[in-house]
Structures
1.
Amino acid sequence: MQHLRVVTWNAEGMFVEGSMTRRASPHNALKVVRLLDADLIVVPEFGIHGKLEQPIVTALHSLGYEIIEVPYEDRTMPAYVPKHYEMAILSRFPVMSMATNRLGKTRNSVELRVLVGSREVRILGIHLDDKTEASRLIQAEDLSRIITADKTIPTLVMGDFNAMVKSSQFARLMRSSLLHQISKSISHEQLKSITTRLHDMALGTTLEYLFTNTHLVDFDPRHQHTLSGKTAGLEWVPSLRLAKIDWILGSKHFQVLSYKVIKDVGSDHRPIVADLQIS
């Protein structure tokens, strides 16, 4: 049996200087990568495409990683997000093939096929839209077709889904009519935007659709929270984990040996680390 350690971590642009986070630098990102010591890392919000500095590239290569970068090419992103933003996958496994998939005709995702020992494994790195549940559902339809195109190969779908499970306590709170009405009266524009979007993420229909229409399973039955409100522009907010919107889903080829969410490392999302075994 083959073992692998995988990570999903929305780094809030930490790998590229000047991207988003104001609390950390690319050298802090390297420290996190060393700490994680994973075979494969999916990084939504890696940074601004084409601006990764050579010393960071060299350092990642020295740690054994091939760097696969994919710009989102999403014209609907809000103004506060830098232009030409991208996601990336860092892989210590030999990459057999790479493809860019367009989800909902709005944003790119990445599909890798890697060799884990003698087994071919498919990795889908995603970052679904953060604005409305309606747009995420359209992207989920495209994603489901990609996932179910081949049910024989071990498959992992990892990244920032911007979606909660409907049954979670925080999701129920965010869906409450009282909180929704209160959010409309918030004068701070960024806070108002965040609470409005969290209300939509709490509907839970995106994940419900994916579980219903694919063969994927949730590797974290505890639904450990990954997201805090301590984001760029809201550095004064306490670094408390509020909700789970980052997920590692996989086919039944995998057995989960361990799954944990680690501490705040300078972005608004906590990294998730999973040790897996392929049966």
2.
Amino acid sequence: MRAWKNMPGLLLTLLLVLPPVAGCSKETTPAANQSGVLTGTVRLGSSVPLWMLHGTMTVIVYMKGTTSPAYLPVAISEFYHPVFPVGFRITQKNVRLSGIDLKGNVRIVARLSLESPSPLVSSGEYTGMTPGEVPVGGPPVTLTIDHPSSR
């Protein structure tokens, strides 16, 4: 019983010694991008059928090649059964080609695709992209998936 008498003093000591904890979750609001990082949000256009939400959304980063003026896909991030709006963050870890550094100006494409074996739900693919180049490490971008794409 004597141990219980000292309990309020022990609790008070712990409260004064331990640092305050604000919460369990990190803040997810992107402020400004870091160098070598692309962040943004993908939204779904009103013309996209709702059954497409059972598909896969892919965010692809395209860069101009050093020996070619064509844009090449260099980084990818996938989201299965996305819940829109979807926030994304692409870093050097998402680059799929060796020897490529994520830097400079890029184009970003968001693609929502669904392969359906059912006759009740049709397969399809819809895309959205940046209107031009965006800088790596620049402000967050917003993409809207709203265009049907041909396969």
